[in-house]
Amino acid sequence: MRRSLVALSACMWACGDNIASPPDAPRDVSFEPAAHIPMPRVFPHTGTVLPSVQLVTVTFEGYADRDAVERFGAAIVSSNWYVSAGAEYNVKAGTALPAVRLAQMPGPLTRRDIRAQIANLTTGAIMTNPAVPQPPPLYLVYIPPDIEITDLVVRRSYHEVIRLGNGDQVPLAVVLDGGDTATTLVAAAHQLIDAATDPFTQPEGYYADPPVNDPWSLVLGEVADLCEAEDLVSDGGYLLPRVYSNRAVAAGKSPCTPFVPDDDWNDVSAKPSQMPAVAAGSSTTYVLTGWSTREIPDWKLSLHAADRSDFTLNQMSPDLSSDTINNKSKVTLTLRVPAEATSGQTGGVYVRSGDKHPWAVGFVVQ
Hints:
Layout: E1 3-4, E2 15-18, E3 42-43, E4 54-60, H1 66-76, H2 80-86, E5 95-96, E6 100-102, H3 111-128, E7 138-143, E8 158-163, E9 169-176, H4 181-197, E10 207-208, E11 232-235, E12 238-240, E13 243-244, H5 246-250, E14 256-257, E15 266-271, E16 277-278, E17 283-292, E18 299-305, H6 313-316, E19 319-320, E20 324-325, E21 330-336, E22 346-353, E23 356-365
Parallel strand pairs: 2-11, 4-5, 4-6, 4-7, 7-9, 16-23
Antiparallel strand pairs: 1-19, 3-10, 8-9, 11-12, 13-14, 15-17, 17-21, 18-20, 18-22, 19-21, 22-23
């Protein structure tokens, strides 16, 4: 029987164990993972990173979690998690510079407003103080939950670059506090490691960079983005995100580090593997093949719209022939192109195994 699925949460996080080495448990040598398309690679581009980040935590007057986020900033850049997550990308332990406390800004704000505030701080520091380290500090700004950022399509934390009048680029990460301290700090760690490994627009650092006809081009592709829904790890009393690893992929392990005990991977891959051109008002079907790194019971599939999809999940009306799959078994997925779609638009979904382990599937409007 065919079933229509609606989006399930992509962020049903569970607490993992403390950071550990890659699992060395004996494997069943007779088990064979199904043939599958390789996981995406994170490319270095010019390999420009913040090798020893100088972190400045920025809050506004009256921010309720100020003390908590300042303690977090002081601890996180020298933590085991940060060193472990950054090692593959030539990122080492950093230093927390003195926190900055700004006067309360009336909301709502725009991204430009935030950039202007930090540019004022940064220009004075870089232009007048030769003791400020180069490359420039990374400013980690926390926005209170009652302040709206009006020019965000989706309310989520982000990082970007401020360009100063003298041509300098200053990395900026903005954390949107959702009202829960632990979740806010997960978002802060996510933006911190993404910004440290890909801090500038030119030259560029580490992120997945598939061609435009690859469905993974619809997915945010920095090192924490690619592991966003995976189980968290615990370090120093904080829950922290896991980070994508090319080395782990090449070794046939879970692509997200730090590893946790018995850390295996189950996923799907799709054919066609590239995005087909599909006429508005019609549909396209993909064959999903399950694969896993060891024998496990059947697992559930869930769907949600890809980050850069021009269409919502409801607009694409996805149908799965079954919502369970296993290694070497197959399920079909049908996506519909809205009748009002225009040529060149793109649509797609994450197919998640359970609530994590994503695979990207998509189409281009003919």
